[in-house]
Protein: NADH-quinone oxidoreductase subunit 2
Organism: Oligella ureolytica
Amino acid sequence: MLLSEQAYKQIDKELAKYPADQRQSAVMAALRIAQVEKGWVSDEVIVDVAEYIGMPAIAVQEVATFYDMYELKPVGKYKLTVCTNLPCALRDGEKTAHYISEKLGIAIGETTADGLITLQESECQGACGDSPVLLINNHHMCVRMDKERIDELLADIQSEG
């Protein structure tokens, strides 16, 4: 078992939501729980989740590789995902990603040398009216991210580091 007892208890809560013959329905939640704990979803975690749920590892791998919210390689402690889809791009989403890239000295898809921040771009995050938007670690959405708000966010993250 690669995850903590607490993580397996959380997965059990997700499994309880479905009939016994539909355990695979909890696979996305199980992967999310594993990723929150480990920071990313390794091949070993995929096998462990598959065994715990009782489904083929390849089926769990298919889910993990289909959805872009699962990280299949290590990322920084803070993953900043900037929406660059067309509506956000028209409202400075691409400029926001470029600004963060310059501030951090990394390209999109890279992680800072200290391992603190990974910068990624994404498709629509469903907040077009509040663009530019970004997600922190897939859970916290930041809206209307002008340069001042970005500078504040990065300073906060780096001070917590």
The chain has two domains: 5-66, 78-160. The longest strand covers residues 78-83. Residues 147-160 form the longest helix (14 residues).
